[in-house]
Each structure stands twice: as structure tokens, then as C-alpha cells.
């Protein structure tokens, strides 16, 4: 058998962002699957229909040495795939710092592995409320909501992120703290004038090896998609890019315009379930508002002691008490949300790996012991660890919920987990009634 000819492969820096990119490729009509490890040749031979793949990584929450070890292996494997585009997918608020989730390191590793003269960086994602103007990033409060738009360093949530607080909205300055690579910009006026090719040539000739690209609307993304595809076709190597799901939106938009792929507009209905389980490691104000709404709409709240369960020696008895409570409520037809104290614990340094793993283990035991069919995972930093604890191996989109957070079907060797419906959302996603929406209250 042959491995599939892929149009794009991406590595997501966390689980939530990986399903975001999965959605926009699926909407554009590409047969796409999201894996948790780079699939082997033998694995891909089982899915010869695929036109795109993603890898749900966890580098957003890692230090530099761990990131380097993870990405050198992943990039080497991705470079061997039959594709013209490889994308390192980051959060649309460019979450990173020199110490954690360092995107500058990603840039350096990508330049070395893929042998490109330059790397395009597109962070804007207009349909998610993310806009880039003259290199500065603006973000709506709550993806899929009508929240106010803020410059990133003044955003009520992102400016106070517990791990990577945003104190600089100029993406060139922000990335410049993480790398010595020369950084340029294809600004909004050049995008508007469709003058990207000339501006790109001038800046690359001047030594710029990373070029941010501004965008504020869908027309801009179409222009950028054409530019990226032309650059990918013009060179002998895979075109490596960094950015939000704006990369998938841009390329998908251009491929649809050219008739390479036909957009998919029909999905299975979001049927209401008797009970929904929510596990949340998110401390964002957006998620806190959703928890408050859910408490008033028939969701049962189970608050976990996050500092205790992230200690070095975790007692199984501690998790078991949460598991037993959740099972009891779900068996009586109640929806349950298991979460930390939220804002009151923001100042306490917690291990994303330990918290995410604990939440995932709780969810797995609950699912194995009940007839639960749908799970919601909230929290970008913790989601990748929760998914691995749940023994999720791959998934594909089955229905939209809000843009950037689709409902997916799980593939797993664990019989209880295989076929599970899962929705994964970052801390900035959704209006106040989001948990009810995922439960199917509006179906």
C-alpha cells in the first residue's frame, strides 16, 4: 500500500489548538485526522484517504530542553512525509515566553530542519476574533462570543495568564525576546495591495528569516493563502510555517477558490445528551463565567484540590473520591463539571502535566464505569496531558460547535473510550452558555 499524498501536516503545541486546526481543514473539505504521535508509515497506510494530518503536541507547556527533544524528533518525521506544507500550530494569542513554550526555539529548529530561507508567521484568525495590524495583535474576549476586542497586552485574561502572561502586543518584540533570528513584517497595507511577493523578496534579501503577516478579514486570508501556496510550489523543500489556525484558514480558502477541494457544509446534528462530563484545568475568566452559568443550569460542580493532586506523591484515594462522586451524579442523569478553584488558585504554581493527567485519569475511570458518551475538556495547557491519560490515539471532526472548538470522535484501543464524542476548548473559547451548548441544549 501507499502512504497518502498530503496537502499539509501540522504539529499543534497543545490539544485544544490542534482541534482548532483540524476543524478548519475539515471545513475546507480535506479528509483530516488528528493523531497524538507522528504516525508511522504503517499507520498512514491504513488511512490512504487522508489529505491532511495533525499531531496534538504539548510543547506549549514545556521548557526549552524538553521542547527541543520533542520537536527535533517530530520535525524529522514530518519532513519525511509527502507534503508541501508543514505548520507549527500555536495559540492565536501567541502564548509563549523564553522559558515556557518558546516559539523562537521553534523558529530556529524549523529553519534548520526544513532548509527554508525564511519562515512565514501568521497569528491572525479573524473568525476567532484575532486581528494583526502593523505587527500588533488584538484579541476578542471569548472566542465565539460578542466580547470586546483588546490589544493583547491589555486583554483582561491573556495579560494575566498564569504561565505566559502577555505584556507585549507587538509580535516582533515578543518573539525577539526568544530568538536572535532577524524578524520582519508583511504589513496590512502590503496585504491590502496584494504586494506580498515583492515585499517578501525585499525583506528576505535584507536578511529577515521570519516574516509576520498582518490580517483582519477573510479576504486578507485568501490573499495570504495564495501567497503561501505559490511559495510552497516555488521551492524544492517543504514550506515550514508558524502560526494560528489562520494558516489552515488561508490555505483552505485558496484551495476552495481554486476548486482543489470543495468545502464541507453538512455535518451530523449536535444531539442533546442526557449527561455531559466537563473536566477543566482552565483558570481563565471566560471559563469561570461558563462554570457560573452551568451551576445555574443543572450542572453539578465537583471542585478538586489542585495543589494536593499535583503533589509528588498522589494518593489514588484522593482521585477515587472525585471519581465516585461523578459516577453517582451521572448515573442519576446529572451533568458534572470537575474543575479547580479557578481564579483563586491562579497565583499557585501548578504542574500542567500533573493536573492534566489527574483530570484525564478521573474522566477515564468515570467513562469506563458509566454510559457517558460525550466529554468536554477545557484548558490549553492541561488538555494534551488529559487526552493522553484518557488513552486517546486519534480523532476526527464530526460536528461544529463554535469556530475553533469542534465536536470530535475518538479512536482508541480502550473499548470504553473508542467512539467517545469529545469537545476540547481553550480558556478563551465560548460564551457563558458554552457547556450547555456542548451538552446539546440548543439541539
TrEMBL record:
Asked if the record carries the keyword Heme, the reply is no
Q: What is this protein called?
A: Four-carbon acid sugar kinase family protein
Residues forming the Four-carbon acid sugar kinase nucleotide binding domain are 277-435
Pfam families under this entry?
NBD_C, SBD_N
| InterPro entries in the record | 4-carb_acid_sugar_kinase_N, 4-carb_acid_sugar_kinase_N_sf, NBD_C, NBD_C_sf
Going by the entry's taxonomy, the superkingdom of the source organism is recorded as Bacteria
Molecular function (GO) terms listed?
kinase activity
> What family does this belong to?
Belongs to the four-carbon acid sugar kinase family.
Keyword terms: ATP-binding, Carbohydrate metabolism, Kinase, Nucleotide-binding, Transferase
Domain Four-carbon acid sugar kinase N-terminal positions: 8-251
Amino acid at each position: 500500500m501507499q502512504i497518502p499524498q498530503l496537502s499539509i501536516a501540522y504539529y499543534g503545541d497543545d490539544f485544544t489548538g490542534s482541534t482548532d486546526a483540524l476543524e478548519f481543514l475539515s471545513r475546507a473539505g480535506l479528509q483530516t485526522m488528528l493523531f497524538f504521535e507522528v504516525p508511522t508509515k504503517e499507520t498512514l497506510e491504513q488511512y490512504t484517504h487522508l489529505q491532511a494530518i495533525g499531531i496534538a503536541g504539548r510543547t506549549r507547556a514545556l521548557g526549552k530542553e524538553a521542547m527541543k527533544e520533542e520537536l527535533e524528533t517530530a520535525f524529522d518525521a514530518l519532513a519525511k512525509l509527502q507534503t508541501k506544507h508543514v505548520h507549527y500550530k500555536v495559540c492565536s494569542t501567541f502564548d509563549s515566553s523564553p522559558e515556557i513554550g518558546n516559539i523562537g526555539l521553534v523558529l530556529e529548529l524549523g529553519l534548520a530542519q526544513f532548509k527554508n530561507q525564511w519562515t512565514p508567521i501568521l497569528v491572525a484568525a479573524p473568525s476567532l476574533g484575532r486581528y494583526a495590524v502593523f505587527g500588533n495583535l488584538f484579541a476578542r474576549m471569548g472566542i465565539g462570543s460578542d466580547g470586546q476586542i483588546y490589544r493583547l497586552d491589555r486583554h483582561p485574561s491573556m495579560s494575566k495568564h498564569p504561565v505566559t502572561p502577555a505584556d507585549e502586543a507587538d509580535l516582533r518584540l515578543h518573539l525577539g525576546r526568544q530568538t536572535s533570528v532577524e524578524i520582519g513584517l508583511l504589513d496590512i497595507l502590503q496585504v491590502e495591495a496584494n504586494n506580498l511577493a515583492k515585499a517578501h523578496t525585499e525583506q528576505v534579501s535584507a536578511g529577515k528569516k521570519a516574516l509576520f503577516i498582518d490580517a483582519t478579514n477573510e479576504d486578507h486570508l485568501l490573499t495570504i493563502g495564495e501567497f503561501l501556496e505559490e511559495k510552497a510550489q516555488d521551492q524544492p523543500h517543504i514550506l515550514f510555517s508558524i502560526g494560528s489556525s489562520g494558516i489552515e484558514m488561508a490555505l483552505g480558502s485558496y484551495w476552495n477558490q481554486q476548486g482543489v477541494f470543495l468545502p464541507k457544509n453538512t455535518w451530523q446534528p449536535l444531539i442533546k445528551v442526557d449527561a455531559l462530563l466537563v473536566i477543566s484545568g482552565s483558570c481563565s475568566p471566560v471559563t469561570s463565567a461558563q462554570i457560573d452559568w452551568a451551576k445555574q443550569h443543572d450542572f453539578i460542580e465537583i471542585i478538586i484540590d489542585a495543589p494536593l493532586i499535583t503533589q509528588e506523591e498522589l494518593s489514588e484515594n484522593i482521585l477515587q473520591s472525585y471519581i465516585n462522586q461523578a459516577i453517582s451524579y451521572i448515573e442519576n442523569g446529572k451533568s458534572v463539571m470537575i474543575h479547580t478553584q479557578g481564579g483563586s488558585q491562579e497565583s499557585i504554581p501548578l504542574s500542567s502535566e500533573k493536573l492534566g493527567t489527574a483530570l484525564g485519569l478521573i474522566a477515564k475511570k468515570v467513562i469506563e464505569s458509566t454510559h457517558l458518551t460525550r466529554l468536554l475538556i477545557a484548558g490549553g495547557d492541561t488538555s494534551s496531558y488529559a487526552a493522553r491519560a484518557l488513552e486517546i490515539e486519534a480523532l476526527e471532526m464530526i460536528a461544529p460547535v463554535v469556530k475553533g472548538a469542534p465536536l470530535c470522535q475518538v479512536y482508541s484501543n480502550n473499548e470504553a473510550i473508542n467512539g467517545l464524542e469529545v469537545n476540547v476548548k481553550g480558556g478563551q473559547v465560548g460564551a457563558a452558555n458554552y457547556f450547555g451548548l456542548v451538552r446539546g441544549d440548543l439541539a
